[in-house]
Amino acid sequence: MTLKHIKLKKVILLGSGALKIGEAGEFDYSGSQAIKALKEEKIKVVLVNPNIATIQTSEHLADKIYFLPVNLYFVTEIIKKERPDGIMLAFGGQTALNCGLELAKTGVLEKYKVRVLGTSVKTIKDTEDRKLFNQKLEEIKVRYAKSFAVKTGRDALIAAKKLGYPVMLRAAFALGGKHSGIVKNEKELNEKASQALADVPQILIEECLVKWKEIEYEVVRDQYDNCLTVCNMENFDPMGIHTGESIVVAPSQTLTNHEYHKLREIAIKTVRHLGIVGECNIQYAVNTKSDDYRVIEVNARLSRSSALASKATGYPLAFIAAKLALGHSLIELPNSITRATQACFEPALDYIVVKMPRWDLKKFKNSYHAIGSEMKSVGEVMAVGRKFEEALQKAIRMLDIGMYGLVQNNIKFANGLSEEMKNPTEQRIFAVAEAIKKGIRINDIYKYTGIDKWFLYKLKNIVDAELKLYSEKLEKNLLLEAKQVGFSDKQIAKITNHKTSEIRDLRKKYKILPVVKQIDTLAAEYPAKTNYLYMTYNGSENDLGPEKKSIITLGSGVYRIGSSVEFDWCAVNATITAKKIGYKTIMINYNPETVSTDYDICDRLYFDEISFERVLDIYEFENPVGINLSVGGQIANNLAMELYKAKVKVIGTSPKNIDRAENRHKFSSLLDKLKINQPAWKELISIEHAKNFATKVGYPVLVRPSYVLSGAAMNIVPDQESLVNCLEQATMVSPEHPVVISKFITNAREIEIDGVAQKGKLKIYAISEHVENAGIHSGDATLVLPPQRTYLETVRRCKVITKKIIQALNITGPFNIQFLAVNNSVKVIECNLRASRSFPFVSKVTKYNFIELATKAMLGHDISGNYNTLDFDYVAVKVPQFSYSRIKGADPVLYVEMGSTGEVACFGEGIKEALQKAMYATGFKAPRKNILISVGGLENKIEMIEACRKLISMGYHIYSTHHTYDFLNENGIKAILVHKISHHKKPDVLDVIKGGKVDFVINIPNSLKKEIISDGYLMRRAAIDYNVPLITNVRLAKLFIDSIYKKKLPDLRIKSWDEYKK
Amino acid sequence: MPIMIQNKIIKKQEGMINSEDRPAICKLILEDGTEFCGKSFGAEMPTAGEVVFNTGMVGYPESFTDPSYAGQILVLTYPLIGNYGIPLIKKEGGVRKYFESEKIHIKGLVVSEYSKKHNHWQAENSLGNWLKKNNIAAIEGIDTRALTKKLRTKGVMLGKIIAGNGDVEFYNPNNELLAKTVSTKKIVTYKAGKKSVALIDMGVKNNIIRSFLKRGVTVVRIPWDYDFCKIKSSGIFISNGPGDPKTCKITIDNIKKYLSKNKPTFGICFGNQLLALAAGGDTYKLKFGHRSQNQPCVESGTRRCYITSQNHGYAVNAKKLPAGWKEWFYNANDNTNEGIKHKTKPFMSVQFHPEAMPGPTDTDFLFDEFIKMLK
């Protein structure tokens, strides 16, 4: 019987939870599309996703939203309560897929008669279990990489011996290739295998295909066996580097017709044989000297690659996949981009797309920068052009890492060029460019990198163009040529010793302007009503004219630590609001993981750079009513002054006032003028001055250099020695590069106000408090709304200060102010005149859409009203998600620099319930039996006494290192002694973590000092590497222990968002 | 480096030419007077033909050697062409590998960017050199999307590429009997197995021959105007080819005669049109044709859809099918006819290319279906 005959009434959809490395914004896009597809069929949608910053958890989409962990326990409870008749597992990444497999395995789905829609559980298992997968491929004579699935380290060694080193180690059932890597010898294998086996039950030892081409196809199939490939993609970086870590182009560039269609045919054959219904991704390794190939894997779900393919082609993969899962056939579905053709076709591109990953490894001290078969990148960008060179240079700039393009970047390669090319880090592409410039032969570069020479020749074209710009007069043809290979005005200006504005003027004089092209899925074959656009210098005609009465909104740009899906939520809501008011909406964004880049969000989407140059190009072409740059985060906000000077109409707060808040100097003098307290601070131009100032205000101090050589930008330094160290080694201090030093206030609480103002008047605000004391970046803090331990008087004072600032800066639109509070004394530490990270959180918790209000305010609609944002019958807690297990070597400790990659938020009757749910939602597991506790500093130890007593009373065993052990014993708390690693006595910390003796680690670092390799560091790192839950903050540890003491799992209520009423 | 000033040319389209080593002014002129300026990368000679576009993203060596392109200037919408060069020329079973015939059939080539440097383990030559060697003009630096939009709106047009010195008149290949120029001059037999098929060569692609041979079917390749009723074979196959099918009266008459024998008959592309005409149906010229590798074709009366490779400017009129015939496939995008089948007799043909090359291989099974009918 086909699905068509089954009427579905209610479907449960699993989201992917917090953004983490390997599982990011792409699943907000795919989930949102799935919900739209279900709603179109009038099916009720129950969404489980604790990621409050997502668009899919917005009010207007799903019928019921559960901000609860996507795991077996919670989803089972939700199924019991909601009784859905179908479940969708393919739209929430590996998290949803794994949860679905567990639901099936434990019989929950069967018991409650929940039907898995789309690809069956059996097929999912066939693709996830390497042995079954290889069997399936064997049945149809498709080649796969030789591999052995093993469950012990010993078997791993035997397998590797059979294959011969080097071998590839992979972990089954792990997202984004976690624990995967090339293993060169027995010693390495021993180490890596035991780490991986601590995390997963099975690992794979595979034949090593390093330097083969890596090719992917995105395949869709319906239940009538119609099957097609929507897009193929080629990795610039060959096999050996995870596709999430690779530069990727679409379509493939170096495959012949024979290769392209052979792989396509195998893809279809494989997908049919596996019986996938919906969407999947198949990855190949392709030999560069013969017709040989291997199938590497099939992902029977929407993936990072499918999101990319969807944006690269304009084909709405997730939407179609959801429709197919409901039983539709491909021939019944229209192509929603063209609105003239069918979904049953394969897009033809008349442009090239380049995807680049964004890494933030520099944020993490001690982290290994090598890139390889494990994913470490935190975001990605996609650039569109009609030349590879053009798209690549765009993409590099889009990364927002301060690069001008492929060339002109002044990067130092510490290990030398050839080393950098052989053992790649995130800087490899720049090393290749440098090598070409130095005259190293393309053949040699190929030998070092394995990058196809076709790509290397293209890079050389850019280097050659740079040379020409140096040596020839900048005439019309040369300028055009430079623009065609992707040089920015700024880059050209730098090479030719001009001002950027002079290059722009020259361009205009020569009539060298970019043209607007449509992405239409069919290379102009039929007229398409597409609103999906990009700009290129490789064209002579615009595909369309300007939009009338439009508002441009700048999106978030690349996701990185500190800016991700929350700004996509803001940008989308701002656009929807502007549309509702009656404007035509134009979105500029280039992040393929976003919902804002979906064709159905705005009237026009420019998939292009959010740079001064490109935004102004678009602005001049579209001539809009105004531009909104306060909802996209820092990239958009940073353009304020430049655009203002170019006479661009910016809606909301004047850029002049934005600058007064952004500029440290101006803002501080404003606070002084307004008689608002702030921590003592000074901008200093030499180490001597810095020392004097720090001594005057007293240590610890917070150091913010304006020029960073290595390591993190911000530091708390406890004493003079550390200050000198920090300034000498990591930064440059000079009159050109001043350093800002401010008094660091210890034991202060941190409070944030998010709000919207209009014409200098406060209209709505939400006040939230941090669980942790000040000293932790607000993005890594545990946020509580409404505040639970802030005095009313403090709230009142914060509000008074806020009003003063709003008036002084004449704010119209969103803002965020951060405060320090010691008792009732309040100091301002930061102010942003834009939407902040916590806007979706406060909007969803208070149930007022702050962005909608802000957009209305900016567009001149009065938003006055009575908003209750303080007094509800529930509490919500926002908890950060860390991805330390991905960033090998990094110290997983909370600090002034943000380290989290995502966040979740859960609701509860009280803070304890909400916190516990939220911690579980980030993958945290409650302790089962034995807890390792190591607390630095007497103050912290004293703080922990009560909590430890509670643990003992709950029946837990406490393992402790020396000092903590002594301290606990003195206080009558029984603990078991474990030695520090540096003491070289057994059993040590590593033994109990590695051996699985302890299932929970609490390590509170001693001081603010960031030590390089300490016992604490080794303990924390071991906890991460062996997948043991870790808490490093004393406040959080206390609150969590108190929470599990008071509330057990069954006490945590299964309530949907709408059941929490104010 | 000398930079040619192009202000002498009356331009209707702003060019997008590189300043780099441009050998001579090169332009594409359409019959409506539109000019596109670019850079030559093929033979330095003027050429004229019918300007058509193809949206396929791979397979330029296969396309350029496809005889169905005879008389046409081909515009490729994919902007980067030449990436993997031109493969080593070798023969397999008497048929050239990777090429669809013995020579390049396009009259000229129009692309956005020619990849001067190529890389592939099979590459023996660069695209530019190959075109030069074979006297085919080619122009790069053209906004092929703008050009395609023009052709899509106004329909295919005549045009010429002016590369190097001299000029040529516009030339309409459709007024000519093109089959004559591309068909084999004499009967050629490719031995493979007991079953045999008489292949009427209207400009056959090599992969059609390969498709029979690899299935163990002997192919007797016959000139377009040869009366194949005289040939002993298990069935006939009518090939693809260039131009207007109605110009091939002799072939149509021969097919008519053959149909009375009730023997298995299969046609592809031009063969679909000839079979329709022979059966008493009609054909017409499409506005801008189907030339791509992503045409969805639905098998009538089913929910099955196949992605097909296509290259045709004419189509069978599905509304005028003679009695006893039915539509077999139709195009899911524009509902045009993609194949016909006799309701009772073993006659069938498709408008798309089951042999692919270039393009998807989804409908390769049609060869098996036909071969099953052969006795």
Task: Give an overview in words.
The complex is a heterodimer of chains A (1062) and B (375). Chain A has 1062 residues and is an alpha/beta fold. Chain A folds into seven domains: 3-119, Rossmann fold (3-Layer(aba) Sandwich); 146-208, Dna Ligase, domain 1, CATH 3.30.1490.20; 353-515, Carbamoyl Phosphate Synthetase, Chain A, domain 4 (Orthogonal Bundle); 542-651, Rossmann fold (3-Layer(aba) Sandwich), CATH 3.40.50.20; 680-743, 2-Layer Sandwich (Dna Ligase, domain 1); 749-872, ATP-grasp fold, B domain (D-amino Acid Aminotransferase, Chain A, domain 1), CATH 3.30.470.20; 924-1051, 3-Layer(aba) Sandwich (Rossmann fold), CATH 3.40.50.1380. Chain A is globular and about 75 Å long. Chain B has two domains: 25-174, Glucose Oxidase, domain 1, CATH 3.50.30; 178-373, Class I glutamine amidotransferase (GATase) domain (Rossmann fold), CATH 3.40.50.880. Chain B has helices at 60-64, 127-133, 144-154, 178-182, 206-213, 249-259, 270-279, 365-373; strands at 25-30, 35-40, 47-54, 72-76, 80-81, 86-87, 91-92, 95-96, 108-110, 113-114, 123-125, 137-140, 157-162, 188-190, 196-200, 218-222, 235-238, 265-268, 283-299, 305-316, 325-331, 337-342, 347-350. In chain B, the strands form five sheets. In chain B, strands 14-16-15-17-18-23-22-21-19-20 form a ten-stranded mixed sheet, with helices on both faces. Chain B has a seven-stranded mixed β-barrel with strand order 1-2-12-9-4-3-13. Chain B is globular, with a radius of gyration of 21 Å. At the A-B interface, helix 9, helix 16 and helix 17 of A face helix 3 and strand 19 of B.
Secondary structure class of chain B reads alpha/beta
Estimate percent helicity of chain B.
10-25%
* Biggest interface, residues from each chain: A-B, 64 and 65 residues
- Write down the CATH class of the largest domain in chain A: Mainly Alpha
Shape of chain B: globular
| CATH C-level class of the largest domain in chain B | Alpha Beta
Query: Major beta sheet of chain B, specifics?
Result: 10 strands, mixed
Continuous helix count of chain B:
8
According to DSSP, the number of beta strands of chain B is 23
Oligomer: heterodimer
Structural category of chain A is alpha/beta
Uncertain runs of chain B with pLDDT below 50, 5 residues or more? 1-15, 17-23
* Portion in strands of chain B: 25-35%
Task: Report the CATH superfamily of the largest domain in chain A.
Answer: Carbamoyl-phosphate synthetase, large subunit oligomerisation domain
Number of strands of chain A: 38
For this structure, the CATH topology of the largest domain in chain B is Rossmann fold
